Amino acid sequence: MKITCGYFIYLFIFFRIFFYSLTAIKMFYKNGDSLTAAQREFRRFYNLGRHGAVPSKHAIKYWFNNFEETGSALKKKPTGRPRSARTPQNIDVVRESVLRSPRRSIRKQAAAVEMSRESVHRILTLDLKFHPYKLQIVQQLRENDYQLRLEYCQQMITNINNDDEFLSKLWMSDEAHFHLTGYVNKQNYRYWADTNPNEVHERPLRTSKVTVWCAVSLHGIIGPYFFENEQGILVTVTANRYMEMLQSFVTPELNNFPHVQETWCQQDGATSHTARQSLEAVRELFGNRVISRFGNVPWPPRSPDLSSKVYTTRPRTLDELKQRIQEEIHSIPAEMLQRVTLYLLYQ
């Protein structure tokens, strides 16, 4: 057998790619399946310079997928009909694993049953007809809440029927906490099942935050108002601070809108809103046109809040967070407020 120089070059390239691929796969596993971290560790392992050539993310992912599927970084040539992991036995194994732990990710399910992620995903979707249901965050209702909500709706319908302009005179208000770290990311939660389990997840968020008050109506928006002291530090919303906000901020703002003498106010049943002195301050502004706990129209407890687009670009400081809140509130078009009001009117 004649061995040429080209043959040695071929062997050298083959083994270099082989060892490079194994090293890249090892770094990928070692760094939590991060392609960027794998490239960084690869550069350190081979003592490459800052701008030294390393395998691309596509190459690392290609080698990793081959390794997961065949046990080899290099693609094996198919021999006859490809084998399938979707056997009746494997389908039963995956079903039992998912039923035991429906909140586990596909990666963890695959590790538990010692199968590839692709095979587990195919079995879940094609054979078991399971779906990854998203997390739902809802208010928990008590038994008496349903009747209170029904009575509130009936009273509101009566007010709308008695006054065609009732909704145009209504201001809906509330506070909200905006955490600097964002909110519960529902994209990270799945519940694998053949029918929707309507799972509810409660998760406290204890981070730096701001407390914001705002009111909306058909005619526009009042706010945002940040509850903070003179140094810009967050303060708790108390009855006295709520009264101060009504007198120093809401009253002058309200005079810029029509129907001031006939305006209705909605607020929830928070203690700072329903304390005796708070309700007295609210009634000084709105008379007997108060929708609230202990108000002229009782506001039902545990009513849902609106979500926000503040976190579409993640703020890094509290000042940036407040700026994003102001931008989003000021960007709400008047047409949207009108459409919301008309939608409520004709439902």
Automatic annotation (TrEMBL):
<feature type="transmembrane region" description="Helical">
    <location>
        <begin position="7"/>
        <end position="29"/>
    </location>
</feature>
<dbReference type="GO" id="GO:0003676">
    <property type="term" value="F:nucleic acid binding"/>
</dbReference>
<keyword id="KW-0472">Membrane</keyword>
<dbReference type="InterPro" id="IPR032135">
    <property type="entry name" value="DUF4817"/>
</dbReference>
<keyword id="KW-0812">Transmembrane</keyword>
<feature type="domain" description="DUF4817">
    <location>
        <begin position="25"/>
        <end position="72"/>
    </location>
</feature>
<keyword id="KW-1133">Transmembrane helix</keyword>
<protein>
    <recommendedName>
        <fullName>DUF4817 domain-containing protein</fullName>
    </recommendedName>
</protein>
<dbReference type="Pfam" id="PF16087">
    <property type="entry name" value="DUF4817"/>
</dbReference>
<dbReference type="InterPro" id="IPR036397">
    <property type="entry name" value="RNaseH_sf"/>
</dbReference>
